[in-house]
Amino acid sequence: MKLFDCHCHTDRSACGRVPLEWYHQIATEAPCSFAITDHSAHIYYPPEDKWAFWTDRGQEAYERYKQWGDRQLEQYIADVRAAQRGSMYLGLELDIFLDGTPVCDERYLSEFDVLLGAPHTFPAVENEAPVEQVEAEFKQIIRGLLALEVHVVVHPFRVLVQKGYTVSESLIEWTVDICGEHGVALEINSGYKCYDEDIVMADLAIARGVTLALGTDTHGTDRFGIFTYHYEIADRVGIPAEKLYWQPQVVVAQAAQ
Ligand SMILES: [Zn+2]
Ligand SMILES: [Zn+2]
C-alpha cells in the first residue's frame, strides 16, 4: 500500500505555489496517495488581507468576510472534487479561534475526506506570554479542534518551537492522550521538523495506541512525495513506515478518473 500524505497545499494557500492542476496531472502516477488541504484562513480571508487571521483583528475580520468566504470555500470544494483522480482526497487545514470558533462555517466540515486541525496561532503565543499561559491556551485550541472532529492534529508543537518555548514532556503526553481519547491522529510533519518533540510524541503514541499521520506540508512541488524524515522517525521507533502511518478510511470517488 502506498503511503498517504495527509497534508498538501495548492496556490490557494497564500504561501503555496502549486497549482491544483499539477496535482491533477500527477495524481495517478504519484508515489503516494495524498490530500489537498488548503488553509481555511486563506480561503476565508481575501488576498488583500490574507494574513488577517494571524493578527489581533482576526476574529472581527472573519465575521466581516464570512459570507464571501463561504462562497470561496464552496468553490474550493467544487474545484478539488472536479480535479480528483487516482488516490487524491479533498481536505482542509482548519484554523480556529481561542473561543472555539472555527475559521469555516461548521456546516461544511463534514464534506471533507480529510480534516486537519492546526494550532497556528493564539494570543498567548503571539504575545510571548509566560509558558503556563501559553500551555493553557494551547490546550484550549487543541480541545476546540477535537470538538470539531478533525481527523488529524497537524504540526502540534511547531508554533511553540518557533516562538522559542521549550515543549515539556508533560504537554506532549497531554496532547497524545487527549488525541487518543478522541481517536484523532497526530502528524509527523516534515515541512518544519521538530525532531526532539516528534520522537517523544511518536514513542508515546505507539505506547498508547494513538495513530500517527504522515504530512509533508507541501507548498512547492520539490517537497511532494519526499518522505525521508518520516522514514527516519519510523526507523527510530522501530516500526515500518507502511504500518506506522495513518490511511483515511474513505474511498475516493472514481468518477473523475
Ligand atoms: Zn499548518
Ligand atoms: Zn499546512
Brief descriptors of the model:
257 residues, alpha/beta, TIM Barrel, seven-stranded parallel sheet
Radius of gyration: 17 Å
Fourth-tier CATH superfamily name: Metal-dependent hydrolases
| Proportion in helices | 40-55%
Strand content: 5-15%
Count, helices:
10
What compounds are bound to the protein? zinc ion
- By secondary-structure content and strand pairing, the structural class works out as alpha/beta
Shape: globular
**Cα separation of the termini:** 20 Å
- CATH fold topology: TIM Barrel
Q: Return residue spans where pLDDT drops below 50 for at least 5 consecutive residues.
A: none
Mean pLDDT: 96
Structural domain count = 1
CATH class: Alpha Beta
Task: Give the strand line-up of the largest sheet.
Answer: 1-2-3-4-5-6-7
Q: Major sheet, described briefly?
A: 7 strands, parallel
Instruction: Provide the CATH architecture.
Output: Alpha-Beta Barrel
Please tell me about this protein's structure.
The protein is an alpha/beta fold and 257 residues long. The chain has a single domain, classed as Metal-dependent hydrolases (TIM Barrel, Alpha-Beta Barrel), CATH 3.20.20. 41% of the residues lie in helices and 13% in strands. The chain has helices at residues 20-26, 40-43, 58-83, 123-126, 131-147, 158-162, 169-182, 195-208, 228-237, 241-244, and strands at residues 4-8, 33-39, 88-94, 114-117, 152-153, 185-189, 212-215. Helix 8 links the parallel strand 6 and strand 7. One zinc ion (ZN) binds next to loops.
